[in-house]
Amino acid sequence: MNFDDYRGVWVFLEEKDGGIAPVSLELLGAGRQLADKRKTLLSGVLIGEGITDLAETAFEYGADQVFVYDDPIYRHYRTEAFMRAMLACVEKHKPEILLYGATSTGKDLASAVATDLPTGLTADTTQLDVEQDTGLLLASRPAFGGNIMATILCKKYRPQMATVRPKVMKALPREPGRTGTIIAESIPLKETDVRTKVLEIVRATTRRVRIDEADIIVSGGKGLGSPQGFQLIHTLAETLGAAVGASRDVVEAGWIGHHHQVGQTGVTVTPKIYFAIGISGAIQHLVGMQNSGLIIAINKDPKAPIFQSCHYGIVGDAMEIVPMLIEGFQSALG
Ligand code: FAD
């Protein structure tokens, strides 16, 4: 494998609700830094139906060029079809680095592509850097249950691929009018070549708000005392139209599922408002929420570390304060 043939930093641009998914814009921000360090181009790969115009958004967020596969066959995400397009693009244009958002679609596509290419994939990365001279991608992620940060290298193969957690990288400020090159691509792919058929899309009807997308998160810790006490967190969240978060100790106690866990070995969140209730503020929790817009802590221990990291702190018993908040918000919000 001749490494000199492989150039450029690529980002898989995921389409979401008619636009480019926030995580892809974040990756353009991270990718821009890597590309500048390597003095190379930052490219996006767009696959879908009627999506060519989205390339303009990618340019405004830092891309120099976008490879576009615009065809009815890509109307819905299907592993086989998207994988075939991505593989063709990689084989033709040979990127040095290829990044995907660690979303359901990004993870599915990246792992499918990795099974075909003779290269590796670092999953769920939280930090990225590149060696300026060698182009070696330094992809870091928590390992061994979060006890260490491992930096994973792919020394012998190209492209170097990684999925990156949403909300960890920063998108660049939008630069209206910034332009780039659209490169229209296609492969001879027929409907009969794709074994999966999308018969119907059924939107989830749950009223629950997803933790990684929420503007407000109400998080509870062991200070709630019991699963019954933790119900107060659900009620407050429902009152505010917020998502429910939790500390690891609460998840390990089985009071709520792991996908609600905030922190080093859980989800990284950046809501506008984050309530930390009965949470001590261990560093492993803080790293997952410290970039929230406004942090409000409730804890009965005035020396709890969370009070060093919040904007507003209430010292007192959550069992008394949270019901008052629920009542107050319910009457204020009607
Ligand atoms: P505690 O530390 O038990 O704190 C409970 C708090 O509630 C205390 O501050 C107490 O004063 C307060 N309290 C008690 N009663 C009341 C009351 N009635 N009203 C108000 N306040 C009250 N943790 C995470 O959260 N996320 C992670 O991703 C994560 N990853 C980890 C990875 C590793 C490798 C390790 C070693 C640990 C990790 N942890 C993680 C665990 C972390 O170190 C803490 O143990 C955990 O965050 C503590 O949870 P807690 O704050 O709910 O519980």
UniProtKB/TrEMBL annotation:
Binds 1 FAD per dimer. SUPFAM superfamilies: Adenine nucleotide alpha hydrolases-like (SSF52402), DHS-like NAD/FAD-binding domain (SSF52467). Keywords: FAD, Flavoprotein. InterPro entries: DHS-like_NAD/FAD-binding_dom, ETF_a/b_N, ETF_a/FixB, ETF_alpha_N, ETF_asu_C, Rossmann-like_a/b/a_fold. FAD binds at residues 247-248, 261-265, 278-285, 299. Residues 9-198 form the Electron transfer flavoprotein alpha/beta-subunit N-terminal domain. This is Electron transfer flavoprotein subunit alpha/FixB family protein. Its cofactor is FAD. GO terms for biological process: fatty acid beta-oxidation using acyl-CoA dehydrogenase. PANTHER family: ELECTRON TRANSFER FLAVOPROTEIN ALPHA, ELECTRON TRANSFER FLAVOPROTEIN SUBUNIT ALPHA, MITOCHONDRIAL. One of its GO terms (molecular function) is electron transfer activity. Belongs to the ETF alpha-subunit/FixB family. Gene3D superfamilies: HUPs, TPP-binding domain. Pfam families: ETF, ETF_alpha.
